[in-house]
Amino acid sequence: MKIAIPDLVSNSYFPAVAAVDLGFFKEEGLDMELELIFPVDHTLEKMRDGEIDFVGGSAHSTPHAFPGWKGGKLLGALAQGMYWFLILRSDLGAKQGDIEAVKGLNIGAAPLVDLGLKHLLTEYGIDLEADKVNIAPVPGAFQGKNINFGLAAAQALQDGKVDGFWANGMGAEVAIKSGAGTLVIDARRGDGPASAFNYTMPALITSERLINENPDACAAAVRALVKTHKALKEDVSLATEVGRKRFPNEAAELIAGIIQRDLPFYNAAISPEFVAGMNTFSKAMGLIDTDITYEDAVATQFSHLWDA
């Protein structure tokens, strides 16, 4: 079987990577292969077309490939909350929470990921057009096959190609440690409107086709996710072990510290409150036309496994 993620050298979908490399999928009877397919809209399209079985990706992106949530389901949360960071050029002198600092800037963000920042800023009171906030793909980030967006964004910031970026914790960490960037928004930990936490989450996603054809594999995948969360909480140094297999040297040595900060959000449960928040966000951004129910989005038959 195959699981794909849209960003590898990252904390965003790390539990999916760790479940492969630490052997938890195999322990549950799944011979799982990991693929990197960027960006997330392409990842989901590949699953829709039957080329992969599972996606570790942003929950709100599902209806891109499965309009109206017809045919796609969330199996569990890789972690809770919207998980991206806004980093701005350090020479701007912006401080954490200084959201007004985005005015007049060029901000790099990946497709569908950018919607989170756009809606957060709008809810905060920023008028993207009047305040001349340009949010667009990072120059050069789509070149090559093995794209790691956060690292590409951090490099673009250092090179002066963007004024800031909205990306994962690894990209944020690299930019801050290099001195090129300053953290301005960490939505998962309370910067910006409170509603932003539930715009999206990193989730384990599959197709209704696979659920119907192989429910045992879906249950096994959820159990593997829960085991991965537990293992990393008990020994976060396992993250370094995985990083050294998959990441460049600098990123491999940073990943355990980043995962350590994420551990409080490692819970596979998907709540009705999350789906309600995602609904509001998704309608505002034109991803869905009407509210979807909890059962439309979540494969509830596996929910008993979240606390296993």
What's the helix and strand layout?
Blueprint: E1 2-5, H1 14-21, H2 24-27, E2 33-36, H3 40-48, E3 54-58, H4 62-65, E4 72-77, E5 85-89, E6 106-109, H5 114-124, E7 134-136, H6 149-158, E8 164-167, H7 169-178, E9 181-186, E10 202-207, H8 208-213, H9 215-234, H10 238-246, H11 249-262, H12 272-284, H13 294-297
Parallel strand pairs: 1-2, 1-3, 6-7, 6-8
Antiparallel strand pairs: 3-10, 4-10, 5-8, 5-9
Summed over residues and divided by their number, the pLDDT gives a mean of 96
Give the % helix.
Answer: 25-40%
Give me the CATH architecture of the largest domain, please: 3-Layer(aba) Sandwich
Overall spatial form: globular
- CATH uppermost class of the largest domain: Alpha Beta
Q: Tell me the span between the first and last alpha carbons.
A: 23 Å
Polypeptide structure, described:
The chain is built from 13 helices and ten strands. It is globular, with a radius of gyration of 18 Å. Helix 6 (149-158) runs parallel beside helix 7 (169-178), helix 7 crosses helix 11 (249-262) and helix 10 runs antiparallel to helix 11 (249-262). The strands form two sheets. The protein has a five-stranded mixed beta sheet with strand order 2-1-3-10-4, with helices on both faces. It has a five-stranded mixed beta sheet with strand order 7-6-8-5-9, sandwiched between helices. It has 308 residues and is α/β, with parallel strands linked by helices. It has two domains: 2-81 and 200-305, 3-Layer(aba) Sandwich (D-Maltodextrin-Binding Protein, domain 2); 85-197, Periplasmic binding protein-like II (D-Maltodextrin-Binding Protein, domain 2), CATH 3.40.190. The mean pLDDT is 96. Helix 5 (114-124) links the parallel strand 6 (106-109) and strand 7 (134-136). Helix content is 40%, strand content 15%.
